[in-house]
Specification:
The protein has about 250 residues and is an alpha+beta fold. It has one domain: Alpha carbonic anhydrase (Carbonic Anhydrase II). It is about 25% helix and about 35% strand. It is globular, with a radius of gyration of 18 Å. The N terminus and C terminus are likely disordered. The structure holds 2-acetamido-2-deoxy-beta-D-glucopyranose (6 copies). The site of one 2-acetamido-2-deoxy-beta-D-glucopyranose has 4 residues, from strand 13.
Length: about 250
């Protein structure tokens, strides 16, 4: 099983590296509303000025991401229970990222008595949250919404190491993604896995415009690992601008 995984993995990485070069140069879309490249005047420090409804990006007082370790994180927001199930999902090119979006009810998490249904997961490279100043190569955000449309996001960081099974399993779809949604079939969010049972919890915001606040963040203390040849992989979650940010 493991050997098979590795063989497929090497193959996928080869294709990814070949494909991503063209994907990235094409994605420099001038008219995209916001991006991660400060040089374009539409980078993160300008988001709050681009549209009146994005003002929170610069005026907000509880903005995410944060550096965990230097900012006080509240550990009294309650437990995290998950109750996921398999449901139809698609892979979507949202221009600023690639997201797995569930089109049916794929279950939920419960935090302090409120149930939030899973909506999508997507990646940021490099990580947005840092731990005591350390930035990681990749971060997954699993986004959930309550019936009152309150948002709860679970964040997990990745370091370099062994391949990640969930990413590996959707790689072929990522490779063939252009602008049309790709049907992923049934995906159980459980497959992403939660690393360990210890996490940081704080009250923050969406990390992209409109940067809305009152978002409950759960960031796992333990990190996932991510492949051999990681740079090529990360490149594929492509946000080409973010890679130059550091
Ligand atoms: C950050 O570093 C300080 C000082 O070394 C340590 O006490 C603290 O536990 C660290 N925090 C995290 C989240 O690792
Ligand atoms: C948890 O829920 C209880 C009851 O709904 C509420 O009183 C309390 O403020 C909540 N705590 C937090 C930290 O959200
Ligand atoms: C949470 O998801 C489970 C299945 O994963 C479902 O049975 C349950 O009804 C859901 N809870 C709510 C409050 O939607
Ligand atoms: C729910 O909140 C999200 C994020 O703040 C927003 O994009 C979406 O439009 C909201 N949906 C509804 C039905 O209000
Ligand atoms: C994703 O969509 C954007 C335009 O919305 C396009 O520029 C980019 O090339 C697409 N990505 C891929 C991998 O085709
Ligand atoms: C989180 O912060 C918002 C303001 O951004 C506040 O309205 C809300 O009550 C806070 N929620 C909790 C659970 O502390």
């Amino acid at each position: 099983m493991k050997f098979l995984g590795y063989t497929n993995f090497a193959f996928v990485v080869f294709l990814v590296s070949f494909h991503s070069l063209s994907a990235c140069s094409q994605s420099e879309s001038e008219d995209h509303e916001f991006n991660y490249d400060e040089g374009t005047g539409r980078g993160p420090s300008r988001w709050g000025t681009l549209k009146p409804e994005w003002r929170t990006c610069s005026d907000g007082r509880k903005q995410s991401p944060i550096d965990i370790g230097t900012v006080q994180v509240n550990s009294e927001l309650g437990e995290l229970q998950r109750n996921y199930r398999s449901a139809q999902a698609i892979l979507r090119n949202r221009t600023e990222d690639v997201a797995v979006v569930w089109s049916e009810d794929a279950g939920n998490i419960t935090i302090n008595g409120t149930t939030y249904r899973v909506d999508n997961c997507h990646w940021h490279s490099p990580s947005e949250h840092t731990i005591n100043g350390t930035r990681f190569p990749l971060e997954i955000h699993i986004v959930h919404r309550s019936p009152q449309n309150k948002t709860a996001v679970v964040g997990i960081l990745y370091r370099y190491g062994m391949p990640d099974f969930f990413i590996l399993s959707i790689s072929p779809f990522i490779l063939s993604l252009r602008t049309e949604d790709q049907n992923l079939g049934f995906i159980n969010p459980e497959r992403i896995g939660f690393p360990g049972s210890s996490y940081y919890r704080y009250n923050g915001s969406l990390t992209t415009p409109p940067c809305s606040e009152n978002v409950i963040w759960t960031v796992f203390r333990q990190v996932f690992s991510l492949t051999l040849l990681p740079d090529m992989y990360i490149f594929y979650f492509y946000i080409c601008g973010t890679l130059n940010e550091e």
